[in-house]
Amino acid sequence: MPPTKPTPLFRSDSSDDDSNLPVSQRIRSRLERANHRYNANDNISAFLKDGEVDQLRIEVEEKMAAVLRSLVIDTETDHNTTETAKRVAKMYLTEVFKGRYEPMPDVTEFPNVEHLNELMIVGPITVRSACSHHLCPIVGRVWVGIMPNKNSNLIGLSKYVRLTDWVMSRPQIQEEAVSRLANMLQEKVKPDGLAIVMEADHFCMHWRGVKDADALMTNSVMRGAFLKDASLRREFLSLMQRKSG
Ligand SMILES: [Zn+2]
Fold it and tell me: Model confidence at 105, in pLDDT bands (50, 70, 90)?
């Protein structure tokens, strides 16, 4: 093993700066050299150089135009579709999948100086995601329950929203989204107990016209105190229902 250099590793390595290669390929080879997974719901921001999201947007636009051509859509005379490839590329890179390309939002954590140890509930937070099977929208709500202890960090309410949005803005499946969010909050807040419930509508069911009745899916993660203490769990679930109105 060569000695490890300061992160990000690729910056010291100029071998991938072959500008003849498509930008996605340059990024992929950095990820592979670093042995870093790049599944649909992974964040790859540490492997992107300045300006590369814009380059990716242009590459995706070209490929998306080819998809429209293959769908036998006349993007030259159909004025509704002339800009579609461009719009879709922008939407993927900078809106609905931005949680793959943007670094984690800055979150200031505060020490729990008041030693708060009461159940806190955040939500419902509106979530927008996409299924990694069909790239169809998943839209729903998330509730977070935190049981802090004196060593926990506290984060502002709006930060829960920003962190949730960052995790959700990727193609994924709901179970994985919930457990990712749980891992991240566990690490940031370090609570005694953490509970997350996500309830979401899967548009691939509606749109494709299959199993409409099963389109709403609910997932939960219970950790620490919520796992051990059934009454705490009940308290969270009943307060959560009251908050959802
Ligand atoms: Zn799907």
Answer: very high
Cα gap 91→57, rounded to integer Å: 9
Interval between CA 172 and ligand 1 midpoint (Å): 9
Residues 6+ apart with CB under 8 A from 212: 205, 206
Q: How far is the CA of 132 from the centre of ligand 1 (A)?
A: 7
Ligand 1 center to residue 76 CA distance, Å? 30
Domains of the chain (ranges; CATH) run 9-101 (1.10.286), 110-243 (3.30.1130.10)
* Structure token pair of residue 200: 């979401």
Cα of 2 vs centre of ligand 1, distance in Å, is 42
What pLDDT shows up at residue 245? 60
Angle between the 157-168 and 174-189 helix axes, to the nearest 10 degrees?
Answer: 140
Report CA(171)–ligand 1 centroid distance (Å). Answer: 10
